[in-house]
Amino acid sequence: MTVTIYDVAREANVSMATVSRVVNGNQNVKPSTRKKVLEVIERLEYRPNAVARGLASKKTTTVGVIIPDISNSIYAEAARGIEDIATMYNYNIILANSDQNEEKEITLLDTMLGKQVDGIVMMSDAVTDKLHHLMKHAPVPIVLAGSVDESNDVPSVNIDYFQASYEAIQLLISNGHKRIAFLSGPLAYTINSKYKLAAYKKALQDANIEIDEQLIISEESSYDSGIEAWETLSTLDNPPTAFFAGSDELAIGIIHGAQDHGKNVPDDIEVISFENSKLARMVRPRLTSVAFPLYDIGAVAMRLLTKIMNKENIEEKVVILPHRIESRQSVKG
Amino acid sequence: MTVTIYDVAREANVSMATVSRVVNGNQNVKPSTRKKVLEVIERLEYRPNAVARGLASKKTTTVGVIIPDISNSIYAEAARGIEDIATMYNYNIILANSDQNEEKEITLLDTMLGKQVDGIVMMSDAVTDKLHHLMKHAPVPIVLAGSVDESNDVPSVNIDYFQASYEAIQLLISNGHKRIAFLSGPLAYTINSKYKLAAYKKALQDANIEIDEQLIISEESSYDSGIEAWETLSTLDNPPTAFFAGSDELAIGIIHGAQDHGKNVPDDIEVISFENSKLARMVRPRLTSVAFPLYDIGAVAMRLLTKIMNKENIEEKVVILPHRIESRQSVKG
DNA sequence: GTGAAAGCGCTAACAG
DNA sequence: CTGTTAGCGCTTTCAC
Predict the structure, then answer these.
(1) Alpha-carbon gap, residue B268 to B257, rounded angstroms
(2) Where, residue-wise, is CATH 1.10.260.40 in chain A?
(3) Domain A5-48 maps to which CATH number in 1.10.260.40, 1.10.10.10, 3.30.70.600, 2.40.50.100?
(4) Is A24 (CB) below 7 Å from strand D?
(5) Strand ranges, E, within B39-91
C-alpha cells in the first residue's frame, strides 16, 4: 500500500541500505546508482517514514514548545521566533498551551518527552521547584524563553527585567512625578514580583520617594484590568500622576480609563508600558514602552537549543538580550 | 539506559503484552497483575515511547496544523481553538507557519505527512489547484479552517463571508451613505475577492449606488495600510463617508488616519470592520464589526477532523458557522 | 561502493 | 487472562 524503502530498493535493484544512504545524502554512493535510486523514489512517490526513522535513529527532528497561551500576542510573537529558527534548522515544532498551570506544564513535558522530542523550549511565568527539577533531569535539553529560573542553572534567554523596569520608573521620576502607580500581572509570576516590582521600589527609594502600597496593583494583565485600575486609583485622595504598566494592554486600559473621564495623556497623566507590541503604535497617544523583544527571545532560545542538541560548546547558558525604551507620546520629552 | 516495556515486563514477571495492555488500559488484565505492573512502571519511571508505538500502531496521535502566521492574532486565535480541541481528544499538534506561500504549504504538507500525522488542519487564504489536489489525495484527512475551497469537496469550516459582508455594507447604506469605500487585504485571497468584494458590489448595486473603482483598495491587511488608505481616499474629489474594512487593523488605521486629521468617527465618517478581535474594544470609538469567530472555527475544524479520523459519519463536510454584527461606536445607531 | 542483518520499542494477532 | 511471535519502516554496524 504505502511505499517503503524496501519497495524502492527492489525496484532499483539495490539494497535498502543504499536507498537509505541516498535518502540521507550519504556520499558513499556511486553517482549512477544514486541517480537510479532517485528516479525510482520519484516514480514511486516514496516518502520516508519519519516515525520509523525516529525509532531507528533516536532522533525525531521535532522539538516541543510549551507556552502559556498562543492566543496572547506576547507568546505568539515568541512562538514565531521559535518556529522560524526551528524551520531554519530543519526541526518541526509540537506546540502546546499550558495556561500557566503547573499541572498542565508537567503533563505536557511528560507527553512531549514520550513523543521523543529532541529538545524543548518552554515559557513559564513561574518556574516552580518541581518544574525546575523535571527540567534538570529531562533526557533532552530544555531551554527557557522569556522566563526566569532563579537558580540560573537551566539554559534561558531573557532581558534584564530589573534594569529595564528601573529605567522606566526613572524616566517617570525624571519627569517630576512623585506619585507613580505600579501595575502588573500576578505577583506570583517571578518577573512581576522579583524584577518589575522590585525595580519600582528601588527606583522610588533611590529618589527618596515614599512607597505607597495603594499605588501598587497586581491583577490580570488585561485591558479591562487597566481600566479598572484607573478607576480605583483615580479616586484616591492623592491619585497618581504617572503609571508604570506591565503590559501594553494594561497601559491602554489606563489611558482609555483616563481619557473616557476627560483626562489628557500625557498632559494630565503619563504612562509607560512594558512590552512594545504592535499595539503600542495603534493607540492615541502612542505608547512609550520598554521594548520586550519576544520574537528575538524565542529565536535565540531556539538557536541555543539547537546548539545544545548538537552538543556544541555554549559560551553562556543564561543569555540576556539588550533592551531599550521606545519613546513615543504617552510620556513627555 | 532508558527503560523499555521489556524492562518492566521482566521486573513484573509478566510478558510485554501484558504491560502493553495495562499501559493501554485494556480491560483484559487481572486487577492484581495490573497493580503489580503499575507499581513497577512507577518504580522504574517507565515512559512509553510514542515513536515506537506510532510505528507499530500506525497512529501518532498528533495532527499537523498549517497556518499563515502565528504572530497574527487572527490565526493565533484559531490555533488556540484547534489546540484546545486537539488536547481534549488527546492529540498533540505540530504547528507550522506557511506565510501564505504555496511552496511552503506544499513542503509543510509533505513533511507532516512524512511525520505520519493522523490528520491536518490547514488555513490557507488561497487554495490553489495544486493544493487542492494534494489535499484530495493525502493519505490522511485534511480539513480547512477559515479557508475556502471553491470546489467544496474538501472538509472545511467557515462562516458565510458573502452574506456577512453584504449585511455590513447594507448597514452603512441604511445609514444613508452613498460613498462607501471598500478596503481589504490582497484580492488574490479568495475570501477577499469572491466574497467580501463581491458582496460589496452586490449590495451597492442592489441599492442603486454606482460602483466607483477608486473607492476599492486592496493592500496588505495592516494598520499602516489603513492609514495610507485614508490618506489617499480623503484627498479624492468626492471622498467616501463610510468604510468597510476587511480587518480590525485596517479599520483602526482608517480611524486614526481620520482622527489625526481632525475628523470625528462616527460623526464625519463611519467605519465597520470584519474581524471583531479584542482590538475592537481597545480603540476609541470602539469598532462596530462583523464577528469572525476564529476560535470557534478552529475548534470546530479540529472537532470535524477527529470525527473523520475516527471514521464517524459526518453529516456535512462543509460547515458554515453563524455570524453576527457586533454593534459598537464606529457606526451610528 | 554496496549488501546483510540486527535491532529501535511497541502493538497486534493468535494461541492457549 | 496471559504469553509468543511477528512485524511496523528505517538506521546502522559490520563484512565484503
Answers:
(1) 13
(2) 5-48
(3) 1.10.260.40
(4) yes
(5) 62-67
Residues of A whose CB is below 8 A from B112? 92
For A161-292, CATH gives 3.40.50.2300
Smallest CA–CA distance from A248 into chain B, residue: B282
Contact flag B278-A223 (C-beta cutoff 8 Å): yes
A54 in B contact zone (CB under 8 Å): yes
Does B96 contact A at CB distance below 8 Å?
A: yes
CA dist., res. B4 & res. B20, Å (int)? 11
Q: Name the grid cell of B68.
A: 499563515
Pick the CATH number of B62-159+294-322 from 3.40.630.40, 3.90.180.10, 3.40.50.2300, 3.60.20.10: 3.40.50.2300
Q: Give the span between the Cα atoms of A290 and A331, in whole angstroms.
A: 12
**B286 touches A: beta carbon within 8 Å:** no
User: What's the sign of the alpha-carbon dihedral B162, B168, B174, B176?
Assistant: negative
pTM greater than 0.85 (yes/no): yes
- What CA–CA distance (Å, rounded) separates A233 from A213? 11
Strands B156-159 and B119-122: unpaired
Q: List, by residue range, all CATH 3.40.50.2300 domains of chain B.
A: 62-159+294-322, 161-292
Q: How far is A171 from chain B (nearest CA, A)?
A: 26
**Interchain CB contact of A281 with B (< 8 Å):** yes
Query: How many degrees, rounded to 5, is the angle at CA B314 between CA B96 and CA B137?
Result: 50
A183 — phi, psi (to 5°)? Answer: -130, 130
The residue type of B223 is Y
Q: What confidence tens digit (pLDDT) does each residue in A237-281 have?
A: 999 999 999 999 999 999 999 999 999 999 999 999 999 999 999
DSSP A278: G
A26 touches strand D (CB under 7 A): no
Q: Which of B222, B2, B87 has the alpha carbon at shortest distance from A113?
A: B2
List phi, psi (to 5°) of B311: 60, 35
B249 contacts in chain A (CB < 8 Å): 282
Q: List % helix, strand, coil for chain A (3-state, nearest 5).
A: 45, 15, 40
3-state secondary structure of A68: coil
Instruction: Name the E strands within chain A.
Output: 62-67, 92-97, 119-122, 142-145, 156-159, 180-184, 216-218, 242-245, 270-275, 288-291, 318-321, 324-326
**Residue B211 C-alpha, separation from nearest chain A C-alpha, in angstroms:** 31
Q: Which nucleotide is nearest to A114 (CA to C1')?
A: C9
* Residue pLDDT tens, chain B, 333 long: 689 999 999 999 999 999 999 999 988 899 999 999 999 999 999 999 999 999 999 999 999 999 999 999 999 999 999 999 999 999 999 999 999 999 999 999 999 999 999 999 999 999 999 999 999 999 999 999 999 999 999 999 999 999 999 999 999 999 999 999 999 999 999 999 999 999 999 999 999 999 999 999 999 999 999 999 999 999 999 999 999 999 999 999 999 999 999 999 999 999 999 999 999 999 999 999 999 999 999 999 999 999 999 999 998 999 999 999 999 999 998
